[in-house]
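Protein modeling request. Please complete all fields; requests missing the sequence field cannot be processed.
Requester role: graduate student
Desired output: 3D structure, token encoding
Chains: 1
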Amino acid sequence: MSKVIPAPVDVPGGKVSWRHAANSDRLYGEVCKVYFKMGEDPRYPKGSAGYKNGIRAMFKKISVVLADGRILNMSAEQDDLKAIGMIAESASED
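Delivered output (94 residues):
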């Protein structure tokens, strides 16, 4: 049995599409930037286990340019991409 491996969406210049809610339209855009940002690790809130400011972690973020020129910055963590249904669009059109 072969397993289908989806194309990565965190490739600069790649075309992606997603839907924020089940009843919303599908949005299409192009990934223009992939970067990492420090943030609070949700597994270790502030004040837990003696850490005054909580534990920091690196989170993957992407910037996507829509067709009308708007730039959206969003999380590129696997769980977040799965929640909004983001997929990479194929380069060839049938």
